[in-house]
Amino acid sequence: MIGKKTSRRSFIAGTAVLGAAAGLAAPAIAQGKRTLKMVTTWPKNLPGLGMAAENVAKRINEATDGQITIRVYAAGELVGAFDVFDAVSSGNADMYHGAEYYWQGKSAAFNFFSAVPFGLTSNEMNAWIYYGGGQELWDELSAKFNLKPFLCANTGVQWGGWFNKEINNIEDFKGLKIRMPGLGGEVLRRLGASVVSIPGGEIYTSLQQGVIDATEWVGPWNDMIFGFHKIAKYYYWPGFHEPGSALALSINMDVWNSLSKSQQAIIRDACAAQNDVTLAEFNANNATALATLLESHKVELRRFSDEVLTKMGAVSGEVMRETAKADDITRRTYESYLASRKNSMRLSQYSEEAFWQARRLPFVYE
Ligand code: CA
Predict the structure, then answer these.
(1) Are residue 307 and residue 225 in the same domain, yes or no?
(2) How far is the CA of 32 from the centre of ligand 1 (A)?
(3) How far does the centroid of ligand 1 lie from the alpha carbon of residue 33, in Å?
(4) 114 within a domain of the structure (yes/no)
(5) Is there a single domain that holds both residue 311 and residue 282?
(6) Are residues 19 and 68 in the same domain?
(7) For residue 200, how far is its CA from the centre of ligand 1 (angstroms)?
(8) Tens digits of residue pLDDT in 199-220
């Protein structure tokens, strides 16, 4: 079990395993048993996201009574973090676990299946994918690349990121070198920042060496494991850019079609289970990590002002409307996503959002 005591060094060091040696593990088909290769965008044994990949593989192995064994490769073991899509699309690996916004260069529509600025929360994302037409669009998009995708983890609301200078107004983003993937990165680029998208395992060194001035990653739990509190002064909230980031397990379509109906059902349900459990894991561990960051590490929290958030929101809307024009599937995905967002916002103001406000009223409870 990888717990909160895992050091940065233990999993980052693991990424140095020789890719060539790992590549020798050929898929084994013997006595009806299969070994499939899963490549990921995560450092080895990364708590939360990396372990979601490991754990869904374990679920599938157990539920198939060992008929399917999935060997999980961390970023850099078989292919680099950002090469997993091509590896699985071409059949060099059987499935990947990663964030879909990394593939926005293939089609802008991929952004919608991880997270977009001021978009859907984790609950709302599940509603859209499972019941709002999202999965059908995602299947159509992925099929163009010979892939079959599933939701397979969610981080919940992410944090604004780690900064060494305060963001008091929108001008403070000008010239800032920041790591932020997806369309959130495009928003900050338009606000004058110099934005990079680099894999998780490379962020700490980049920030330490001054290649970047600021970074977002996930939230208190994952960020504390990376050690950003040691090299950055302010921890900003909320993360406008990733309100509930979904991670995907996507399978090579030929491999998917070669599986029995029962095996397909097991994989589908294992992914749904992992989607739930990883979110619970983030929620539980973020809460305890936040306490540690505040009480033991004396981290200074900063909230983006309403003025800054409003400007970010306006630029986000501009980016979203332009992104929608990229191609036909992106336009249809945008329209479906937007309709779901509108419905969710109307519901939320009377349900979750309203309840959270009510729960914070100044009554005595304990
Ligand atoms: Ca992030």
Answers:
(1) yes
(2) 40
(3) 37
(4) yes
(5) no
(6) yes
(7) 9
(8) 888 999 999 999 999 999 999 9
pLDDT digit string (tens) for 103-159?
A: 999 999 999 999 999 999 999 999 999 999 999 999 999 999 999 999 999 999 999
* Ligand 1 centre distance from Cα of residue 295 (Å): 24
How many domains are there within the chain? 2
Q: How far is the CA of 90 from the centre of ligand 1 (A)?
A: 27
pTM: 0.89
In a domain, 86, yes or no: yes
CATH number at residue 103: 3.40.190.170
Find the domain containing 149 and state its range: 8-155+243-286
Pair (267, 120) in one structural domain = yes
Ramachandran sector of residue 239 (left: φ over 0; alpha: ψ -120 to 50; beta: rest): beta
Distance 180 CA to ligand 1 centre (A): 7
Q: Which two tokens stand for residue 150?
A: 């599933």
Q: Contact at 8 Å (CB) between 203 and 75?
A: no
Rounded CA-CA distance 195/187 in Å is 9
Residues in the chain: 366
In a domain, 142, yes or no: yes
Q: Kindly give the distance from the C-alpha atom of residue 226 to the centroid of ligand 1, in angstroms, as a whole number.
A: 13
| Under-70 pLDDT residues of the chain | 1-31
Question: For residue 235, how far is its CA from the centre of ligand 1 (angstroms)?
Answer: 14
Considering only CA atoms, which of 194, 154, 159 is closest in space to residue 174?
A: 194
Domain containing 208 — which CATH number?
A: 3.40.190.10
Q: Which of 33, 52, 40, 147 is nearest to 90 (CA)?
A: 147
**Cα 360 to ligand 1 centre (Å):** 27
Answer yes or no: are the C-beta atoms of 240 and 313 closer than 8 Å. Answer: yes
Query: Near ion ligand 1, which residues have CB within 5 Å?
Result: 158, 242
Residues paired with residue 250 on neighbouring β-strands, in sequence order: 96, 149
Give distance in angstroms: CA of 366 to centre of ligand 1.
Answer: 35
